Amino acid sequence: MDLLKEAESALCSANEPGAEVPNGAAGHYLLGLIYRYTDRKRGAIHHFKQALSADPLLWAAYEELCALGSAEEAAAVFGEAAAVCIHKQYLPNGFSPQNSDMSSEDQNLNSARRSMDDVSPRQLKQMLGNNARDVAGSYHGTTASSRGSGQPLNGGSSQLSLYNTPSPVATQLSGAAPPPPCRNLQPNGPNLSTLGADSSPRSTVNSTIQAPRRKFVDEGKLRKISGRLFSDSGLRRSTRLAGEAATNATTIATSVAGNGASNSSKYLGSSKPSSVALRAVSIRKGHSWASENSDEGVRNEVTDDSRFNPTLANCSCPSGDNRTFDQDGASMPVAGPVLTSAKVLTGTAEVLGLLRLFGEAYRLSCMYRCQDALDIYSRLPHRHYNTGWVLSQVGKAYFELVDYMEADQAFNLARRTSPYSLEGMDIYSTVLYHLKEDMKLSYLAQELIATDRLAPQSWCAMGNCYSLQKDHETALKNFQRAVQQDSKFAYAHTLCGHEYVSLEDYENGIRCYQTALRVDARHYNAWYGLGMVYLRQEKFEFSEHHFHMAFEINPCSSVIMSYLGIALHALKRSEEALMMMERAILADRKNPLPMYQKANILMSLEMLDEALEVLEELKEYAPRESSVYALMGKIYKSQNMHAQAMLHFGLALDLKPSATDVATIKAEMEKLHIPDEIEDFL
C-alpha cells in the first residue's frame, strides 16, 4: 500500500525505541526495504545484514545488499558462521553428547537411537512393518485405553513422517488429505492427554481441519468457499460432537483421534472416509526406508517429545492426531533423528556451497563485472545452470557486455525453461530492440501480456516494440503503464525518459530520469540518460558530471567511457578525453565509437597521421560506417590531398548517411572544388 511510515511504526514502536524487531530475520528484511525506499541507505544495509545473520538462507536480503552495492563476498556471508547458525536451528539439542542438562528419559531415547545406527535398512523396514501390523490389528480396540491416557503408541516413529515426503500417488489412492506444510508449530504442543482433558472437542476438531488462507481470496469469497466445503457435513459433525461431549475424557480422546481422518476427507469434499487402513509408501531413490500410517487419513504427528528435535518447534502440523506406533507396550524408537542429523550436515554444506556460487556471481553482476560473473555461473552444475533464473542472469550479463547475440540465446533458453517467469524479460525486450528483431519482439510482448497483464516487464516489452517502429507516443503510453503497475520499477522510468528525449521533450525526460534515480540511485542508465540530455543541450559540465556518476557505478562500460570522453573533449580537457578513449577501446574493441572519437580528438590536436592510422584500423571493424570515410576526407583535405579527400567523401555519400551528414559532406566537397576550378582557370 506504500504506507512506509505506518509500516515502520508497526515494526518499531516509537514508545519502545530499543525493542526487538518482531519476527527476527523477516522483520529486519522488511525494515531494510522501508529504509531503502525512504533513502536511508546506511540503515537499510544494517537491517539487511541483521536479517542475514539471523537467517543465512534469506537470499532476498543478500540480493538487496547486492543491489545497494554493499554486499560482502559470498564466501564470507555463506561460510562457516552461516553453517553454525543453520546447525543451531535444525540439529536436535539432545543429539549432542556434551549436553549435561539432558533428562534421563532423553538419554535413554538417544541411546536407543544410537543403537539403531547399526541396524540395516531392511531390518528397520521389517520392524516398522511389524509395528504397522500391530497398530492395524489393535486400532479400534486395545489401543483406545492407551490413547486415552495420553501415551503415544510408540516411542519415535512420529519423527519419521516429518523428514520423508509422502508419495503423492499413495495419497491420491487413499483419498486422505496429504500432510500440511510444517510451520509455526508451538513447542511442547497439545498431546492426547491435553485433548482428553479439554471439555470442548469442537475447538480441537476445528483447529485440526483449519486450512491456511489463500493469499488472493478476500473474506467474502472465503466465507462462500467454506460454506460450500462444509455444507454436506456440518449437521452430521455437529450431532456427532454433541453426542461425544457427554462421554468421559477417555472416550473424548479416542473419538477425536479416530475422527480426524473423516474430518480431513470432508475438507476435501468427500463424504465417505477412505477404506484403506494402512498403506506403504514408496520412497524415491536416496531414501532407504519409510512407512506411513494412513488409517482414514491419519497422519503421524509430533508428540510431546518435541524437545528431542528443535526443528519441530519451527514446524506447524495439526496436533490433534498425536499417535505413533506401539509394539507390545514398549517404545521402539527408530533412527530418524540420526539420519536427519546427517542429512542436515550434508545438506547444509551443499546448499551453502551453491549459495556461495550464486551469491558471488550475482554480486559481481551488480558490480557490472559481467565477465567474471559469467565465469562463475559456468562453474555451476548442469542442472542448476539450466534454470530460468540463472539463464536470465547470464542473459543480463551478456547484455551489459553489449553481446546481444549471446544475450538473445540465453534469454531464449530461459523462456523455454521457465515460460511463465518474467525475470529479466524487460532486458530481453531491449536486447531484441537493439537487434531490430521486430517479429520476435512483437511475439514476446504478446506472450508476456497474455501471461501477466499486471507486470511492468510486460508493458516494457510492449513499449519497446512500438519504439522500434518509431511510434514513440504509443511506446511512451506503454512505459507509463509499466510505471503505474510498479512505481518502484526504475527501468520503466528510464525508458519513459528515453522516449521523451526521442520526442525532444527534454524537460519531461529529465524528470523521468530523476525519478528513476530516486527509486534506485545505482541505476546507471538514468545517469547516462541525463548526461545525454545535457550533452545535446551543450551543458557540458552537467553532462560530464552525470557521465562520471554512471562511470563510477559501471566502470566496465565502453559506451559510458566514450561519452565521458566526448564531454571531457568538449570542456577542452583533451588529454583526459584521450586517456578515457583508450580505456574504452580496451574495454570493447568491437565498439567503433571510442576509436572514431579518438581519431576526432587526435585531429583536433593536429596529430593527423595518428588519426589516419586509427581510422584505417577502424575501417576493418566498421566498413560500412559513412562517418569514418567523411572524417578521413576532412583529414586528407587538411593535408591538401584533394584527390584522396574527394574519394573518401564520395565513399561516405555512397553509404547513405543521414540527411544532416549529407549536407555537411556536400559542403566540404564544394570547398574542395572551388580552388581546383580557380587553378584551372589561371
TrEMBL record:
Keywords: TPR repeat
PROSITE patterns per UniProt: TPR (PS50005)
Transmembrane segments: none
TPR repeats: 25-58, 456-489, 490-523, 524-557, 626-659
Protein's name in the database: Cell division cycle protein 27 homolog B-like isoform X2
Nucleus is among the record's keywords: no
Keyword Membrane: no
PANTHER family for this protein: CELL DIVISION CYCLE 16,23,27, CELL DIVISION CYCLE PROTEIN 27 HOMOLOG
Family of the protein in this entry: Belongs to the APC3/CDC27 family.
Domain of life of the native organism: Eukaryota
Biased composition (Polar residues): 95-113, 140-174, 185-208
InterPro entries to which the protein is assigned, alphabetical: TPR-like_helical_dom_sf, TPR_rpt
Region (Disordered): 95-120, 134-208
Pfam family for this entry, one: TPR_19
